[in-house]
Amino acid sequence: MALTELAVKNAKGKATTYRLRDERNLYLQVSPSGGKYWIVRYWEEGKEKKTSLGPYPAISLKEARARRDELHTARAKGERISEVREQKTTEKRERFGVVAGEWLDARMSDKAPAYVSKVRLRLDRYILPALGNRQLSEITSGEILRLCRKIEASGHVETARRVRGVIGQVFRFAIASDLAESDPTAALAGALATRTPEHYATITERPEVEALIASFRAYPYPIMRCALLFSALVFCRPGEVRHAEWKEFDGAAQLWKIPPEKMKMNRPHLVPLSRQALNVVEELREWTGQSRWLFPSPRNDGRCMSENGVRVALRSLGFEITPHGFRSMASTILNEEGFPPDHIERQLAHSERNAVRAAYNHAEYLEERRKMMQWWGDFLLPEEA
User: Is this prediction's pTM over 0.85?
Assistant: First the structure.
């Protein structure tokens, strides 16, 4: 069955590399990182061989089919496909889109899937449509600046800065691979607008915190009520809370064991659960215990709760605090109470600058953090202490 543009666009990375079949031995090969490459199978001297036609979306489905037909025509004329491909390999490999695909596979394989998805989105939406088919040697600093300025003009200042960063990483990879001599993004230092630091709305005064928690407890819908209380009690990142799965909870050890692929820094994280947090989890089990997720989508479509669920609930209650603001709230109050900053930072799962130390510290200060998290649970829900 022939592929469609929609099927190609929607193909996602899985645990292992797989292929989607088109016609006349053309395949779309999808790597675990989400990289997509066009592959043609053919036979030469009685042996099956494969050759790459380039990455998607730099090479569209229509263009991939045209290149496949070109190779089949050459074969029909008696030409060796391997020789035809060899003549064009250098030129095609020096295209930005091809190198970007190689960079993704080489440099993104150990990164968190959520981060890789964001990088791929920037490539597919902004970078490859403009630069994918261009030779590396033809791309100038001015061209990249115009692309980034266009993104800035649409109101996405931070995205423009990150797009420039991705382009620079691809060029530096190309330099290391002897495919380019310089990085044109180096000349753009200071040329782009700087984003004003974002401070998440939060609450830190005790009367306001008490009013906040009281409103959570009175929330009429039980699953969202649990989501609000659990978010405040564990103060993990909103995405980590939304993607929490029942299999990650160890009631006997009173721990939530978040796997590395769900963490911002791609490292495992242990979250000690206070008695209050455990009570919320047990209440929630009555409602969603048969689901994969603690907080499934109300649409029953197999996905977890949307990223706007808790945010909308907070607004409906009349509070300006954001889901991410629970982290600021906890950090501020725990620091004021005199808890060691190292314990707080570890609980927040902030990155460790020492890479060797970071590889071993996911459980660091666990007992001390248990005591701190129980104090936090008692602070938020004292009558359950």
Answer: no
Q: Which residue has the higher pLDDT, 340 or 57?
A: 340
| Catalytic choice (107, 264, 285, 371) | 264
Is 324 among the residues known to form the active site?
yes
Which domains are seen in the chain, by residue range?
5-90 (3.30.160.390), 100-188 (1.10.150.130), 206-384 (1.10.443.10)
270-294 burial, b at 16+ Cβ within 10 Å, e below that, comes to: bbbbbebbbbbbeebeebbeebebb
Residue 93 bears catalytic tag:
no
Predicted confidence (pLDDT) at residue 195 exceeds the cutoff of 80? no
237 carries an active-site annotation: yes
Is the pLDDT confidence value at 176 over 80? yes
Residue 360 annotated among the catalytic residues of the structure? yes
